[in-house]
Amino acid sequence: MEGISGALALLWMVFAASQAFKIEISPGSPVMAQIGASVSLTCRATGCEAPAFSWRTQIDSPLNGKVRSAGSTSTLTMDPVSFENEHSYLCTATCGARKAERSIEVQVYSFPKDLEIHLPGPLQVGQPVTVTCLVPDVYPFDRLEIDLLKDNHLLKNQEFLEPMEGKSLKNMSLEVTFTPTREDMGKALVCRATLHITGVDAELRERETTKELQVYVSPKDTTVSVSPSTRLQEGGSVTMTCASEGLPAPQIVWSRKLDNGNLQPLSGNATLTLIAMRMEDSGIYVCAGVNLAGEDRKEVELLVQEKPFTVQIGPGPQVAAQLGGAVVLTCGATDCEAPSFSWRTQTDSPLSGQVRSEGPRSTLTLSPVGFENEHLYLCTVTCGRKKLEKGIKVDLYSFPRDPEIETSGVLVSGSPVTVSCKVPEVYPLERLEIQLLKGGRVVKNKNFLMGADKKSLETGSLEVTFVPTTEDTGEALVCLAQLHMDELDLEPTQRQSSHTLYVNIAPRNTSIQVSPSSILEEGSSVTMTCSSDGLPAPRFRWSRQLKNGQLQFLSENTTLTLTSTRREDAGIYVCEGSSLAGISRDEVELIIQGREGNKDYFSPGLLVLYCASSLIIPAIGMIIYFARKANMKGSYSLVEAQKSKV
Question: Are 122 and 45 in contact, with CB atoms under 8 Å apart?
C-alpha cells in the first residue's frame, strides 16, 4: 500500500512540475519597431531552474540580432532595426525533457523626421504658387495620410493607398496650388501627417510642421517728385523724393545712369538732395523700389543750364487754326541780349509761312492756313553758346456752319420717317460728335472715329428712323454737333439746329352721305356730302367715273348737289379726301329712273298707244327741225344738237 502511495506522489510531482513550466514573451505582439532604432524581445521561463533558450524566425531567416540568455530570461536585441527584422520570431525554452515555445511578430515602420514645407520662392499677391508638404523616409507609406491647411482651413487631404512594390523608405509629398492675397500675410500654413499604425504612441505616429506666410507685393507705381524743377541753373540745388508701393514696403535706392549704361550707386534714402549743381551733373537719375518680390524703377532726367536764359512761345503749346484763316506764332527770348531765331517743322517740311525777327521776338505768320500748315513748329533760339528750342503744335479745324436737318418726307402718324443731320465741311472729322435729340431726350449719338491722317473737308451725318405719333407735334427736333478740340478757346466748338415737329394723320374713314337717296326719279334733286378724318383736315375733290375708268373732275366742295337730274346723270361718283399725308376715297352709285304715270286710268292697249304717240310726235318734230337746220347749214349732228339743247 505504501508503494502505491509513493508512486502516486511521484506522478503527482511530475504532473505538477510539467504544469508549472511555461514561458512568456514581451512586449506584447505585434511589436512596432522604428527603423534605425533599437528594440529588444524578452523571453522569460517559469517553473524551471535552468532552462535553455533558442531563438529563430518562423521562416528560418537570419535573426539579424543579438541573443543574450541569463537564468530564466533570454533577450533578442535588434540594433539598429532594419527591414530584415520584420518577421515572426519564435522563442523556444527547454527544461529537461520539457519544451515550451512562444512567438512574437515584429513589424517595422519609419516616421523619423519632421515634415518639410517647401515654397518655390517669395509669395507674391495675385500670382499662383505651389506649396509642397514633404514627409521624408516614411514606411509603410500606404498607411500615410497628409493634410495641408491654411489658417485652419483644409486646402487638401490625401491618403496614399497605392500598393507597395517592395520594402523601402520613400519621401511622400502633397502639393497644393493657391493664389496668395494680402489677407494671407501672417497666416499659418500647416502640414500635418499621420501614419495609421497600431501599437505606437500617438506622438510618434503624428507629425506637424507650421510655416508663417510672408506675402509680397512686387514694387510698383514708383514715382518721383522733383523740387524745384528738372531744369536747373548752375549752382542751384534740387531735391528728388521717391516713393514706391509694395509689400513689404520697398527699400529705395538711388543711382545715376552712366554713359556706358551702368548704374552708379548714390543713396539708400527715399530723398536725394543735390547741391551746388554743375553742368556735368546733368543726366538720368534712377530711383528703384526694391523688395524680395522684385524691383520697379523710375527715371528722371536733370538738365543743368549754363545761365538763366528762357524762351517763350505763343499763343501756347497748342493752337487751333481755322482753314482759310490766319495764325501768328510768336517766339520770344528773355535774359539774352542778342538772340538769333530760326523756325522749322518737326518733320522738316516747308514752313509755308513768313518769318519776321526783331530784337527779342520772332513771328511766323501762316496765311491763308491750309492743310500743309498742320505741323509741330519748333523755334530755336541761340544765345551765345547756348541753344534752346520750344515747340508749338498747330492743329487745323473747319466747323463753319450749323447742322442741316432733313426728313425723308412728310411726318405721318404711324409711318416710319428717317431724319438726317448733316454737318458740312468738317475737319478733323474724327473729333466730331453729333447728337440728335427729340423733346430734349437724346435719340442717337455718333462719334466719327476715322483715321487722323485723312486731310480733307468731310460731311458728318447721322440718320435716325422713328415712327412719329401725334404726341410728337410741337416737340423740337435738335441736331447738336460738337467739335472736340481743347485748343479752341474763342471759336465756337458747338453748333446746333432745331426743327419743330408737325405730325400729320393720313385721311381715313372717308364716307359719302346721299340725301334723299341714291336711287332717284328723273328730274329730282340729290345732295351728296363727303366727310373724312385726318390732320390737317383733308381737302375734298368730287369726280365722276367715266366708262373708260378715268375720273372727271366736278368740284372741290364738301357737298355736291345735282338738280333736275337726268338719266345721263346716273353713274359712280367719287369723293377723295386728301392731304400731304395721303388720300382716302369713297364712292356712291346714283341710279336715275324715268317718271311713271298712274296705271289705274289706262288699259294696256291704251298705254302702248299712248307711249307710241308720245314718242312719234316728238320724233317727227325733231326730224322736221333737223331737216330745216340741215338745209341751212348743209349738215347736222345729233350730238351737237343735244349739246346745244343742254
Answer: no
- Distance, in Å, from the CA atom of 579 to the CA atom of 577, rounded to the nearest integer, reads 7
In tens, the pLDDT along 212-223 reads: 998 888 899 999
Q: Is 485 helix (H, G, I), strand (E, B) or coil?
A: coil
Residues 304, 287 contacting (CB under 8 angstroms): no
What is the gyration radius of the CA atoms in the chain, in angstroms?
60
Would you state the cell numbers that stand for residue 255, as one nine-digit string? Answer: 543711382
Residue 641 has pLDDT above 50, yes or no: no
Helix (H, G, I), strand (E, B) or coil at 450: coil
DSSP 490-517: SS--EEEEEEE---BEEEEEEEEEEES-
> Is the overall model pTM greater than 0.85, yes or no?
no
Q: How many CB atoms lie within 10 A of CB 403?
A: 23
* Mean pLDDT (the chain, rounded): 84
CB 244 within 8 A of CB 220: yes
How many Cα neighbours within 13 Å face the side chain of 519?
0
Res 609 pLDDT > 70: no
Residue with cell 517763350: 312
The contacts found for 452-459 with CB under 8 angstroms, 24 or more apart, are 452/428, 454/429, 455/371, 455/374, 455/427, 456/371, 456/427, 457/323, 457/398, 457/425, 457/426, 457/427, 458/425, 458/426, 458/427, 458/429, 459/422, 459/423, 459/424, 459/425, 459/426
* pLDDT one-digit tens code per residue, 430-444: 888 999 998 889 989
Instruction: Give the integer Cα–Cα distance in Å for 39 and 220.
Output: 60
- Take residue 206 and report the three cell numbers written for it: 503624428
Determine if the peptide bond prior to 308 is cis (ω within 30°): no
- Between strands 238-247 and 263-267, the pairing is unpaired
